[in-house]
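The freezer alarm interrupted the setup, so I double-checked each line after restarting. Inputs confirmed:
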Amino acid sequence: MSISPLNRFKAEFPAKSINEGYARMVAAAFVSQLDPTVADLADIKTAVSEAVTNCIVHAYRDKTDYCPIYITGAYYPDGKTVITVRDKGCGIEDISKAVTPLYTTDTGGERSGMGFTIMESFCDKMTVSSRVGKGTTVRLVKKIVRPQS
Amino acid sequence: MHIDYKLRGTTLTASLHGEIDHHTAAIARSEIDMEIDRVKATGLNLDLSDISFCDSSGLGLVMGRLKKMKAGGGSAVVVNPSERVEKVLTLAGIDTLMPIKKEERK
Ligand SMILES: Nc1ncnc2c1ncn2[C@@H]1O[C@H](COP(=O)(O)OP(=O)(O)OP(=O)(O)O)[C@@H](O)[C@H]1O
Ligand SMILES: [Mg+2]
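Predicted 3D structure, all chains:
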C-alpha cells in the first residue's frame, strides 16, 4: 500500500535559460510549506537548478521547436519530498557514465561535469531514468524535517 | 546579476552580485572577459561575497576565468564566498587549483 502525498504540484515551461530561476523559485515556494531550514531550501534550489539546466544545455541541444520541461513535486506526512524534472530530449545513452563526477560531453562551453554530483550530494537520493531519443527524468528525494528547537 | 570592477595596479577585482546559474553565467562570462582584456589585467579577484545562489555553472564560470588568466600568464583568486557557494565550488576540488581567500569585511 502506498501513502498518498499531503500536497503536490506540476509545472511545465519551455527550455529557456531564463526559466532556470523560475524553476528554482517554484520548487522553493512549494517546499517552503514544510518550513525547511535555510540549508535544506538551498539544497533543493541547487539540485533543481542542475536538473533544469541539463534539460536546456544537453537534452534539447539540437532542437529549435517547442522544448518542454516538466517539473513535479510532492511531499509526504513524514517530510519526504520528491521532485521530478523531465524532458523529451535526446536521452542519455550511458547513465552510469553520465553521473560520474567531472564527466561532461560539453566541449565548447564551460561545463565541468559536476551537475549530477551536486544533485546527489545535496539530496538524499537521486535517480535518473532515460531513453535515447525519448527523454530523461531525474527524480530527487530529500527529507525535509524542521529540527526541534 | 550585476558586476562592478575595481583596478589596483594590474589586478582587477570583479565583485559579482546576485545569482549565478547557466543563464546569468553566460552574461557574466563575456562581461568579465571583456574587462580583463580592456584593462590588460594580470591578476583577477572574483569577489563572490554577494552571491546568493550558485550552481555548477558558477563553478564553470570561475574555472573558465582561471583558465583565461593562466593562459595569459596571470592568476585568479576567489574572494569571500559564502559557506554555501564554497560548498559548491569545493565539491569539484577548485580549492586545489586556486586560492580561496577570506577577508575581513570592511
Ligand atoms: N537531461 C539530459 N539529457 C541528455 N543528456 C544529459 C542530461 N542531463 C545530463 N546529460 C549528460 O550527462 C552529462 C553529465 O551531466 P552533469 O550535469 O553532471 O554535467 P554537465 O552538465 O556536463 O556539467 P555541469 O553540470 O557541471 O555544468 C552531460 O554532459 C550530458 O552529456
Ligand atoms: Mg549539468
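Quick read of the result. Helices of chain A lie at 19-31, 38-59, 95-98, 115-122.
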